[in-house]
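In the previous lecture we treated proteins in isolation. Real proteins rarely work alone, and many bind small molecules. This record shows how such a complex is specified: first the sequence, then the SMILES for 2-acetamido-2-deoxy-beta-D-glucopyranose.
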Amino acid sequence: MLPYSKLPSPDPPPKKSKFPELDPKSSLNGLIYPTLSLQSPRSWLLLVILLLQVIFVLVLRSVSMSFSTSHVAPQQSHPEISASVPRVSDQCELGKIYVYDLPKALNEDLLQNCHELNPWGSRCDMLLNDGFGRQASALNGVVPENLLPAWHWTDQFVLEIIFHRRILNHRCRTLEPESAAAFYIPFYVGLAVGKYLWSDSSAKARDMHCDMMLKWVQDQPYWNRSDGWDHFTAMGRITWDFRRSKDEDWGSSCIYKKAMRNITRLLIERNPWDYFDVGVPYPTGFHPRSASDVTQWQDYVRSRNRSSLYCFAGATRMVKNDFRSMLLSHCKNESGSCRVVDCEGTRCMNGTSAILETFLDSVFCLQPRGDSFTRRSIFDCMVAGSIPVFFWKRSAYFQYAWFLPDEPGSYSVFIDRNEVRNGTKSIKAVLESYSQEEVKRMRDKVIDYIPKFIYAKSREGLGTIKDAFDVAIDGVLRRIKEQQELGFKW
Ligand SMILES: *[C@@H]1O[C@H](CO)[C@@H](O)[C@H](O)[C@H]1NC(C)=O
Ligand SMILES: *[C@@H]1O[C@H](CO)[C@@H](O)[C@H](O)[C@H]1NC(C)=O
Ligand SMILES: *[C@@H]1O[C@H](CO)[C@@H](O)[C@H](O)[C@H]1NC(C)=O
Ligand SMILES: *[C@@H]1O[C@H](CO)[C@@H](O)[C@H](O)[C@H]1NC(C)=O
Ligand SMILES: *[C@@H]1O[C@H](CO)[C@@H](O)[C@H](O)[C@H]1NC(C)=O
Ligand SMILES: *[C@@H]1O[C@H](CO)[C@@H](O)[C@H](O)[C@H]1NC(C)=O
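The predicted 3D structure, ligand included, written as tokens:
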């Protein structure tokens, strides 16, 4: 169970007074006493039915509370205890979402032309199965048999597709823009820029789709309501791919465009100093179909016997003093306690069962920075119930505040990379210094948080469990609501 405590978030604390916690007893008394006289059998029947409902509501409430942030919980308890309101989900107390119907050139056409999404060849297979990619049949024997259909070889850059599909089915989606609190822009900006990133293309070509989107959205009647503050979008690559300041530099300059200024962007890596960048988990290969898939997987990873103390999965780069190369040779040298998956070249590109197996068998996993500060492997590791070891604080602590525990030490280990480099600190010695109880506590924390960093397979989500998509949408709606109360000002 997650603690019923505040999750880290850059937001101001929720204004509790707006969502007073109702006392279940007093509101039920109000319901019961006017109508009941305990003399008649009919009243007894009614009382029994009411009591059953109360029990049901309390059970529901404890289930949903164990997977929700404290921001959400007090508000959720509100509709649940009022017998006249049928379901929590009909409330949308954080507001409704309108999904723009963008010109097809900005999303659907990009999928249609998937064979040209990157310069090396077709990546159409990454778009199969609603963007989750091919079924990971090679994981047969590695994951429990009945969970195999929940595993795919998912590309790390498909966030835009996942969010679009889910938001179209969101319980708080509205078709009437005038009733919306937030506007979602289903733009596949990462897919659009992907094919230009490694080719010799002009700055104009790399910004073309973004310019087109911004022009279109500013022509919409609801744009002017808040100068973009109530608009949000997903950008399925790291923020640095969209922050080109000079024409000859890397990437697109989409985020630097004037009209992007106030739009909230969900990114797999954020710029920690930009309020409008929100870090969301990288997609991993696990896409549970139901809440029971999630709990079964949690039980599975919790019960693993982990034969290696730690592991490292990754490729090295041909740069001097590359920290990853150092970890790789360190790990090979410590073969008694460290396990290596060498992803040299394209070996891990299409997915390999060796990575998941290694994480499942290791107590800790080393997570140095990749080409940028974050890497998908952080989430691959935690999904397998392995405890991440970080060497850069920006790899996770300043990135995924809505999705990870408040206290870094409660679920991860931080080691100063300079002390490793100059030999004053041994990774092995640090990891061996944790007692079995401490390890178990950290692992349990990681496993408890798994729902928050996976993307469900079902279009409607997982019901009682909030996945990464749900957490992200609730977070954005809450921010927009708070901003609106403040008048959308800096
Ligand atoms: C929004 O405001 C800008 C600047 O005030 C104006 O040029 C534009 O026409 C407005 N757009 C709409 C759709 O009202
Ligand atoms: C962003 O919001 C601020 C504050 O509300 C406003 O002054 C500014 O004009 C907005 N920027 C754009 C590009 O709309
Ligand atoms: C883990 O090891 C223990 C003791 O060696 C054994 O009893 C247990 O069945 C093993 N569990 C799994 C899931 O293999
Ligand atoms: C490998 O381990 C040996 C013995 O533990 C040690 O002397 C040596 O310096 C290590 N080499 C590297 C590259 O870590
Ligand atoms: C990855 O899969 C595609 C087809 O799905 C295949 O053409 C390609 O050769 C594979 N690449 C590697 C490195 O295995
Ligand atoms: C090693 O690096 C740490 C951290 O930068 C530093 O405090 C320490 O003095 C260094 N030790 C040596 C022997 O260079």
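Summary for your notes: The pocket of 2-acetamido-2-deoxy-beta-D-glucopyranose (ligand 5) is lined by residues 125, 346, 349-350 (CB under 6 Å). The first strand starts at residue 97 and ends at 99.
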